[in-house]
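Side project, low priority. Logging it here so it doesn't get lost.
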Amino acid sequence: MPQQPIQSERAAPRGGRRTHAALRGTCPLLAALAGLSVGCVIARAPDFRVARVIGSTALVRVEQADLEFLARVDTGADTTSIHALDLEIEDPSPRIEGNVGKAIGFRVVNERGEAVRLASVIAGVVELYDWHGLELRYAVPLELCWQGVCKSVPVSLRDRTVMQHKLLIGRDWLAGSFLVDVGRSAER
């Protein structure tokens, strides 16, 4: 006999979270054991019946720049990254983390060489590991749009000159809205 789905204890509040009756009593215990004082919620799973299917590459528009990029969709990347040059931080700190919250100017360049100068505020620092070791990058909020779906996410700024795709879409932008079909791709 198939298992019955867990019934919700109450309707999902704003933001799509739902407390489940099966967790009542266990969450406070787990939180206490971990030394935390937290509420007990489970994020609602995305509804894949309405998720859009995106290919391994997609034409994505960066709204603030009014510029389109042929982006690589990478489900292995946590965060989204854009080709950014000429970073200028207002009153820079010698420590990279000390610049969070400060104004930054930078130039984004797509694969066609079209460039736009943008200004934003540094939202955070992203830690990335690759074969070179640890790399720290600034992240700024950017609104990215594909086929009518627009999402604002922190995008890391990186010199992607040697890379074919000047915008890399990570799981942070894909989450909850997209399924990736690696057999599909966009072209200019």
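Brief comment: The domain at 52-181 is CATH 2.40.70.10 (Cathepsin D, subunit A; domain 1).
Revisit when time allows.
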